[in-house]
Design brief:
about 110 residues
Length: about 110
């Protein structure tokens, strides 16, 4: 993976806190066209790729699963509790996307 900026390191820390605590994550997001939005999501997993880190999450605004580049996120903060357990949502995301993470299970 590429080196993280201080902002992205803070974002990843907030994501980890939200994941561990099964909490909603709120943040400012700028899409590929440069449009800013405020998002509240139920974080599910982080993928580390050479070109970017991606957060897989249930987006409250879009009412669907979405992926967010962590380098486009700002002011990320854990918020209230998620209404469903993260592993239940993660299993639903895997069914929805067809992604099988079982090879990473301990």
């Amino acid at each position: 993976t590429r080196p993280f900026t201080p902002q992205e390191s803070e974002t990843l820390s907030a994501i980890r806190t939200a994941l561990r605590g099964n909490r909603i994550l709120s943040f400012d997001y700028t899409d590929a066209q440069g449009r800013p939005t405020r998002r509240s999501v139920r974080p599910l997993a982080v993928g580390y790729f050479p070109e970017a880190c991606l957060l897989a999450a249930w987006c409250e605004k879009r009412r669907d699963f979405r992926h967010f580049r962590t380098d486009r996120m700002k002011r990320a903060q854990p918020a209230g509790p998620c209404p469903l357990p993260r592993l239940r949502m993660l299993a639903e995301w895997q069914r929805h996307t067809g992604i099988d993470l079982s090879r990473y299970d301990p």
